[in-house]
Amino acid sequence: MATRNALPTDADALATIMAVRGGTAHEHLVSARRLIARLEVLLIAEQDGAPVGWCGIQKVRIRPGAELEWLVAGLTVVPAARRRGIGARLLGELVRDTPRTTQDEPIFSVINAGNLASIDLHLELGFLEVERAATFAGIKFSGGVGVLLSHP
Questions:
Q1: pLDDT in tens, 63-100
Q2: Which domains occur in the chain, in start order?
Q3: Alpha helices in the chain (DSSP H)
Q4: pTM of the entire structure?
Q5: Which residues have CB under 8 Å from 122's CB, separation 6+?
Q6: In angstroms, rounded to a whole number, what is the distance separating the alpha carbons of residues 131 and 150?
Q7: Three-state DSSP class for residue 138
Q8: Which residues does 87 contact at the CB level (< 8 Å), separation at least 6?
Q9: Residue 97: CB atoms within 10 Å
């Protein structure tokens, strides 16, 4: 398994991975192109030469009126490649590669409260739970509750 920075030519593969969360690759293609162009860091994980996961980082307002803060975008691994350390490697490299002003500048992640595997992964990598709410960064969570985590 290897990770690398996404290239414009990865848009189709990224859209296919994004479709794991719902929709079709075709429906995600414009968003995939936009993410590759705009995110500070967007990593692709490959296994045997095939893309199997991605994650990125962006500056957003996590709460209305707040300053821009780093937020993990789209940590996703295709189902056939899960439970092999790919998500941990992507997230760990993302934390390392984010161009923070200082090492103390936090990186946040928001996760549906029902996604216990993702919450556990974040906690294992040193993220701490900050709070729970129905909405963070404009994201409304199915089931009504999202978890905001911070690293460090």
A1: 889 999 999 998 999 999 999 999 999 999 999 988 88
A2: 2-151 (3.40.630.30)
A3: 11-18, 25-38, 86-97, 116-124
A4: 0.91
A5: 91, 109, 111, 149, 151
A6: 10
A7: coil
A8: 53, 55, 75, 77, 118, 121
A9: 14
